[in-house]
Amino acid sequence: MSEVLVVDSDEAASSRLLPALRGAGHEVRICATGAGALVNARSRRPDVVILEMALPDISGADVCLSLKREPATRAAGAILVSIKNTHADRVQGLELGADDYVAKPFSVRELVLRVQALLRRSAREPACTEDGGGLLTVDRPAHRVRVQGRDVRLTALELRLLCALQDAGRRVQTRQSLLRIVWGNERGMTARTVDTHIKRLRRKLGDASAYIRSVRGVGYSFDAPSESSSAPARDRADELRGSTDA
Fold it and tell me: C-alpha angle 74/61/144, rounded to 5°?
């Protein structure tokens, strides 16, 4: 049974969600404050957190950031709920590390379905993947990415983008297919959105950014080298680091 933590100071809103989530087979806990949510999540480690942005003590944004930064809680799926519904608001929510963003007013049934979809996606993800040369390691449940053994902090959206490319391997993903897989065809998202996030992802991945290959006029693919072919790249990276340290 999956555990869902609902964080909302509005008792009426929580009461609407409670029977629907339990009816879908989830164990549900409710918190009215951000501080209480952090304590609860650290001790019980929920599978999904439904998080209202406007909380009386700590903002939902800060709670989301804390959950995604801490190793003990970063694997929990986070769904932000807010009265704000502009394109910029949704993007900002995803940039905070949220796995999904729902605007008020919302359908209780829709929110439950989003919880189910998030749980299915997590269940399908392999625990940990590593390229042949050990340059890039992706631990999906822990929301942890390492390049040459060093942690790289990605947002939930950036991790989904990396995983979508990695799962497809050398098969080219069009920008439209990435919009569908990563953003769920959310309104207001364009091909330019993909390009912007690819640029940010490459910048964070450093040496491993070479794995993301641009296919002019089409999209992107993920070309991780084999152990033998990646050795020169690692040697060159070690050489560069040595010259920097000297």
Answer: 20
User: What is the share, in percent, of the chain residues with pLDDT greater than 70?
Assistant: 83
* 128-245 CATH choice from 3.40.470.10, 1.10.10.10, 2.40.240.20, 3.20.20.70: 1.10.10.10
Give the model confidence (pLDDT) of 38-94 as tens digits.
Answer: 999 999 889 999 999 999 999 998 999 898 888 788 888 899 999 887 877 887 887
User: Is the distance from CB of 7 to CB of 34 less than 8 angstroms?
Assistant: yes
- In angstroms, the CA 79 to CA 62 distance is 13
Query: Would you state the structure tokens that stand for residue 20, as one six-digit string?
Result: 């629907």
SS3 30: strand
Evaluate if pTM is beyond 0.85: no
For residue 103, the cross-strand partners are 82
The two structure tokens encoding residue 32: 């009215």
CA distances from 87 to 49, 59, 101, 154, 237 (A): 22, 20, 11, 21, 39
- CATH 3.40.50.150, domain 3-124, yes or no: no
How many other CB atoms are there within 10 angstroms of residue 204's CB atom?
16
DSSP-assigned beta bridge partners for residue 144? 139
Selection from 234, 246, 195, 201 nearest residue 216 by Cα: 195
DSSP string, 60-124: HHHHHHHHHHSTTTTTSEEEEEES--SHHHHHHHHHTT-SEEEESS--HHHHHHHHHHHHHHHHH
In Å, the largest CA–CA distance within the chain is: 63
